[in-house]
Amino acid sequence: MSLTILGAEYSLKEQNLFNFSGNKIYVEDREIDVLVKYEQPLVVVLGSVLDDEECDKLIELSKDRLQRSKIGADKIVSDIRTSSGAFLADVNDDMVRRIEKRVASIVGIPVEHAEGLHILNYKPGQEYKEHFDYFAATSRAASNNRICTFVLYLSDVEDGGETYFPKLGLKVYPKKGMAVYFEYFYNDQTLNELTLHAGLPVVTGEKWIATLWFRRKKCI
Ligand SMILES: O=C(O)CCC(=O)C(=O)O
Ligand SMILES: [Fe+2]
Predict the structure, then answer these.
(1) Which protein residues have their CB within 5 A of the ion that is ligand 2?
(2) Is the pTM of this model over 0.90?
(3) Which end of the chain, N or C, is less surrounded by CB atoms within 10 Å?
């Protein structure tokens, strides 16, 4: 939203969902480093969210569940997303639940609003083209739409695979154990649209991420 006074444009800040100050966030079992903050739409890069063993175990748990990724509420295969993915919602594992809880406490949203960890694997050449994570207002899923996204990097990538926000001119380079968070729960739809993002093609190496999407209302 913006306001023009005597020819000068002032932007009116909206409330962000994720509120914190300073460069650290303390949750039950660890201290999270805040490394980068883009104020609105809020985009935050966080360090030391997962340790190496947690990253490796998430990859291991998803290896025999991976399927070619689909997109949208109607789940269609598309060249928008050429990666392979797996939902860990039905995996009965203490560590998976602990990580979901940790992410929920970092963001300050009850874990019942989260869809369950989704693992993605990109091989060289694979990508996730520019998209929004929220569903179109006309879609069935929009009655309990997504409001924010937490992407955990489970591996380093030798070259490529950045998470790219073209409208913000912002690139996040994957680093094992780190995360990028962004939100799109603004009244001003133009702010939500600035969260357009892509997983750029992996050039060398392999990229593994875990995504947790939060919904406006509880999903379970
Ligand atoms: O691969 C990435 O860096 C972005 C993934 C993404 O956009 C998603 O999981 O919704
Ligand atoms: Fe996305």
Answers:
(1) 133
(2) yes
(3) C
Global ipTM = 0.99
Pocket test for ligand 1, best of 120, 153, 164 (most atoms within 8 A of CB): 120
Euclidean distance between CA atoms 122 and 128, whole angstroms: 9
- pLDDT, one tens digit per residue, over 82-95 is 888 999 988 899 99
C-alpha to C-alpha distances, 148 to 69, 87, 104, 114, 177, nearest whole angstrom: 20, 17, 11, 10, 19
211 lines ligand 1 (CB under 6 A): yes
**Distance from residue 4's CA to the centre of ligand 1 (Å):** 36
Would you state the pLDDT for residue 45?
Answer: 98
Q: How far is the CA of 15 from the centre of ligand 1 (A)?
A: 24
